[in-house]
Amino acid sequence: MLYAAHVGVSKRLSEWVKVPWGVGLGLVSPGLPLTLNLGPDNAPTCPAVLIWDDAREGKDSKDKLVLEFTFTKPVLAVRMRHDKIVIVLRNRIYVYSFPDNPRKLFEFDTRDNPKGLCDLCPSLEKQLLVFPGHKCGSLQLVDLASTKPGTSSAPFTINAHQSDVACVSLNQPGTVVASASQKGTLIRLFDTQSKEKLVELRRGTDPATLYCINFSHDSSFLCASSDKGTVHIFALKDTRLNRRSALARVGKVGPMIGQYVDSQWSLASFTVPAESACICAFGRNTSKNVNSVIAICVDGTFHKYVFTPDGNCNREAFDVYLDICDDDDF
């Protein structure tokens, strides 16, 4: 786990990643010199969110502490954008104005959400929030810009899966939402405006726990990591680049086999230690035809792979960030 003590790692990550941190982890606010932590490193559950101003003068971390949100129940996740912070509890989500003079804007009751699933669109044009809906397998979307504080609006719901949602992510403009269920074999993408399913991507045939789904900056690609130790990369802008089953050339088949045959498989993939959970995200493009994906594992390893539209995927960088310094140095 990349604990708050290793804040240098999260600073480096902030350049690339919309980070789905969990309990006890740090996060750097995009575009702001603010570092967030969900509490002590050794706390199994934490009912507080602490925010430091890294630009503020002072030798002690207490001198840089600028905000604290305290709750009676554990905080499971936090999402931030330039003007709002979203704090996720197991059955409730709070939205506050941010960073100046924070005040509570919204409060949403949710289905039991032990993973703290939630995503927040960073776009200046769209303030979309998504989290598991009350119905099993559904997603609830809220436009924070059009919802008035203190009022309730009709839920905008997408029936995405038959079993509980296990992972969810918005693209940068907030026009597409991707989700996977607890089964973990399929990733489905929906238009956030029309609620129509756009495409269905197959991670594999065996059940798996998905840790992370992320879009590339321009929504041309999507990456996903799971407990199988594989990071999959899918093409979205040109889905013809994705692999298809060899049976697709056979022709008409039965309905059950047909669902498998019609699936789109990943354009490229690479492996990380299967025993180490990881998050993944796209790096900055170095050229038109070369893209990169970064994966950070809980064992402290950093993996960077580059891939091309024809499916070639090679490791460009590897590092280990555990024990980079003594905890007392922070």
Give the topology, please:
Blueprint (H helix, E strand, L loop, with lengths): L6 H7 L12 E3 L5 E4 L10 E6 L7 H4 E6 L6 E4 L3 E5 L3 E6 L6 E6 L9 E2 L7 E5 L5 E6 L12 E4 L5 E6 L5 E6 L4 E6 L5 E6 L7 E6 L5 E6 L3 E6 L19 H7 L2 E2 L2 E4 L6 E5 L8 E7 L3 E7 L5 E8 L10
Parallel strand pairs: 16-20
Antiparallel strand pairs: 1-2, 2-3, 3-4, 5-6, 6-7, 7-8, 9-10, 10-11, 11-12, 13-14, 14-15, 15-16, 17-18, 18-19, 19-21, 22-23, 23-24, 24-25
Protein name: WD repeat domain phosphoinositide-interacting protein 4
Subcellular location: Preautophagosomal structure
Organism: Ursus maritimus (Polar bear)
Describe the structure in your own words.
The chain has helices at residues 7-13, 61-64, 255-261, and strands at 26-28, 34-37, 48-53, 65-70, 77-80, 84-88, 92-97, 104-109, 119-120, 128-132, 138-143, 156-159, 165-170, 176-181, 186-191, 197-202, 210-215, 221-226, 230-235, 264-265, 268-271, 278-282, 291-297, 301-307, 313-320. A hairpin with a 5-residue loop joins strand 1 and strand 2. It is globular and about 55 Å long. Helices cover 5% and strands 40% of the residues. It has 330 residues and is mainly β. It holds the Pfam family PROPPIN.
